[in-house]
């Protein structure tokens, strides 16, 4: 038996990425070591690891970001290698240097490359020296707002203010004119300090409606570099990636080769080895510009693995152990198409407010060779307010882009998570959007398609038929059970009425129903709907064949009516007799409204800024406080005008969802 490259590797991370790395270690015969905070004591990555070490209390600064505590765990475990995953210490040059002094191998690049590429100002200077195309801008630190305005006016608005130590979309603000600069500058600086402990900012020209394309690089310590294709990450919200795909439907082979050349030129310039990603923005004319280099494993690396068949984590481990790449550029073939959708604990109907709490129901789509789920949570798992809100990465594969979309659509429709808010309905709406389907996307796609926020997708004729058929099937199944419980015979049960009115939200649909084997034939005016299903009472996922096509509908609630969800659309449906429906139409709706004399926290988190004082007069839309939760900055604004009587919290206070923050006079 071949001796493993490392006896034991510690993963300096948590959640899904820790588990994903551990699975590769197990396949390679290497023992895995987990680290965990107080909040993660019972987490899946702790249970899966061969060993686990406590590294501090729940805040990341006292556990996953504590170099001292991580080093203590390395010493206690005897691990000879450390994989940092992404985030936390993964791009910390100081951590890399300390590991080297400890005689421990970092599964990643050397500290010099991390430092050079981690400073976005330095990285841009190096890219220019390497002959890499860059965005016009001011590549020095901006010291104050007035200087920022002066430089932006020289470059020409719009511009983007960016954190020098930034990454992952943190510390970035688009600025359209000089009036917006003060707020953008202060907000970007605050977020940069909170995320990177580095408030330095610089300015670049904002390329309008670009595509975000990145090249996956893998390089060994002997000067061999290979590009594993590109990923398109244009579907973003506030610079945070939402859906990624490989390859891009926009990039030609000629452009791809040019991007490869510049990626390898930059890699050679800094003496890079291990896995890394060079990110570009691409305009409508296919001109591309260097954005940044991530010296770590990317969140979205699974889509590259699905289209190349290469385990990127395994290659990182082999390279760290001193092995040469076992393949060349000519060996790399991109086969098929893959998507990744980031499932996050956030409420898209409430401005994507992060959600924390316990998962009370959890069911993944059936996995096969075309479906991959990377997660660190399951039934009973706790989504903590201290960390990133991502629950899972759902990845799908198809021989074509169209097939991969269809697999993603089906997978999202059968993914059930309850107990916390999540963004699956939003992802369903995106994946079914006509522009997305044809590949007409850019980094402003979400803003363009949902300028006033997300309130659900549009109810189409086809989905209406699915909701109609689902409602009828559930209703008759319930009625049959109730009749049998009441002691009626099978013949009596089968005489349940055939003429009904189905309401979907405020719309009424008279239907005529005929019972057939395994389902019903339904007539709704001139439409015919055929449904066949083996659904049983109690299941929250309704799977059926409607008019010859498979369809999944999530049953969110069953009371006097049904709350159903599909393709990003939530509806409430009822079944009524024709007479009862006529009577209900005559009833008057009553609405209640109450005046709120207090402001409550919309979610759990930490207050980092209070922008008003007791006795202040405020107006609707005014910024009141800034709250951070799950690494995101959330601005709380006034929903009413009035006078503040009392402020009940202080800056740096931890607050719970619903906690009263201030009282109005």
UniProtKB/TrEMBL annotation:
GO terms for biological process: lipid catabolic process. GO terms for molecular function: ATP binding; metal ion binding; propionyl-CoA carboxylase activity. It catalyses: propanoyl-CoA + hydrogencarbonate + ATP = (S)-methylmalonyl-CoA + ADP + phosphate + H(+). It is an enzyme of class 6 (ligase). Residues 124-321 form the ATP-grasp domain. Its EC number is 6.4.1.3. Residues 586-665 form the Lipoyl-binding domain. It is found in: Mitochondrion matrix. The keyword Ribosomal protein does not apply. Its cofactor is biotin. Keywords: ATP-binding, Biotin, Ligase, Lipid degradation, Lipid metabolism, Magnesium, Manganese, Metal-binding, Mitochondrion, Nucleotide-binding, Transit peptide. Pathway: Metabolic intermediate metabolism; propanoyl-CoA degradation; succinyl-CoA from propanoyl-CoA: step 1/3. The keyword Zinc does not apply. NCBIfam families: PRK08591.1. This is propionyl-CoA carboxylase. It comes from Didymodactylos carnosus. The lineage of its organism: Eukaryota, Metazoa, Spiralia, Gnathifera, Rotifera.
């Amino acid at each position: 038996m071949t001796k493993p490259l490392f006896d034991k590797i510690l993963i300096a991370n948590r959640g899904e990425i820790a588990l994903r790395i551990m699975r590769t270690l197990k396949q390679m015969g290497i023992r895995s070591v987990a680290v965990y905070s107080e909040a993660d004591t019972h987490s899946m990555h702790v249970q899966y690891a061969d060993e686990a070490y406590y590294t501090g209390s729940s805040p990341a600064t006292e556990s996953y970001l504590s170099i001292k505590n991580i080093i203590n765990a390395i010493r206690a475990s005897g691990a000879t290698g450390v994989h940092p995953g992404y985030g936390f210490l993964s791009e910390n040059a100081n951590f890399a240097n300390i590991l080297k002094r400890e005689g421990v191998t970092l599964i990643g690049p050397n500290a010099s490359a991390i430092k050079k590429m981690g400073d976005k100002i330095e990285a841009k200077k190096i890219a220019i020296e390497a002959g890499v195309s860059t965005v016009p801008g001011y590549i020095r630190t901006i010291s104050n707002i007035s200087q920022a305005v002066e430089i932006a006016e020289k470059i020409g608005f719009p511009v983007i203010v960016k954190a020098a130590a930034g990454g992952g979309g943190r510390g970035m603000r688009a600025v359209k004119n000089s009036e917006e600069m003060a707020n953008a500058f202060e907000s970007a600086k605050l977020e940069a300090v909170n995320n990177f402990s580095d408030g330095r900012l610089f300015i670049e020209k904002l390329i309008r409606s670009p595509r975000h394309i990145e090249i996956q690089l893998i390089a060994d310590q002997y000067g061999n570099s290979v590009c594993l294709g590109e990923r398109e990450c244009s579907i973003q919200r506030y610079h945070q990636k939402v859906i990624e795909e490989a390859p891009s439907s926009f990039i030609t082979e000629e452009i791809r080769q040019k991007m490869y050349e510049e990626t390898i030129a930059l890699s050679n310039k800094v003496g890079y080895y291990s896995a890394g990603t060079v990110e570009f923005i691409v305009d409508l004319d296919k001109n591309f510009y260097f954005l940044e280099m991530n010296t770590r494993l990317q969140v979205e690396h699974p889509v590259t693995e699905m289209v190349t068949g290469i385990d990127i984590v395994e290659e990182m481990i082999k390279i760290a152990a001193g092995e040469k790449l076992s393949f060349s550029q000519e060996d790399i073939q991109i086969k098929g198409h893959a998507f990744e959708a980031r499932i996050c604990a956030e409420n898209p109907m409430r401005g994507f407010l992060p959600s924390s709490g316990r998962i009370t129901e959890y069911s993944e789509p059936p996995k096969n060779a075309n479906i991959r789920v990377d997660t660190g949570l399951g039934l009973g798992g706790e989504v903590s307010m201290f960390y990133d809100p991502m629950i899972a990465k759902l990845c799908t594969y198809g021989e074509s882009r169209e097939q991969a979309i269809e697999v993603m659509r089906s997978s999202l429709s059968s993914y059930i998570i309850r107990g916390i808010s999540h963004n699956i309905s939003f992802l369903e709406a995106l994946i079914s959007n006509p522009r997305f389907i044809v590949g007409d996307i850019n980094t402003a796609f979400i803003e363009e398609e949902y300028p006033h926020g997300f309130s659900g997708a549009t109810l189409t004729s086809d989905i209406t038929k699915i909701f109609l058929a689902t409602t009828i099937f559930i209703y008759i199944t319930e009625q049959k059970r109730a009749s049998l419980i009441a002691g009626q015979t099978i013949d009596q049960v089968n005489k349940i009425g055939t003429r009904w009115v189905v309401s979907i939200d405020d719309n009424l649909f008279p239907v005529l129903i005929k019972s057939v084997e395994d389902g019903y034939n339904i007539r709704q005016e001139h439409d015919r709907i055929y449904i066949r299903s083996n659904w049983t009472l109690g299941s929250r996922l309704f799977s059926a064949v409607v008019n010859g096509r498979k369809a999944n509908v999530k049953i969110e609630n069953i009371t006097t009516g049904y709350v159903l969800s599909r393709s990003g659309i939530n509806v409430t449906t009822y079944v009524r007799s024709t007479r009862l429906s006529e009577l209900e139409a005559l009833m008057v709706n009553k609405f209640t409204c109450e005046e709120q004399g207090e402001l409550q926290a919309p979610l759990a988190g930490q207050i980092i800024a209070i922008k008003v004082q007791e006795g202040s007069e405020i107006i609707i839309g005014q910024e009141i406080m800034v709250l951070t939760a799950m690494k995101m900055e959330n601005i709380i604004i006034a929903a009413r005008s009035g006078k503040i009587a009392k402020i009940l919290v202080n800056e740096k206070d931890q607050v719970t969802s619903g906690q009263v923050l201030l009282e109005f006079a």
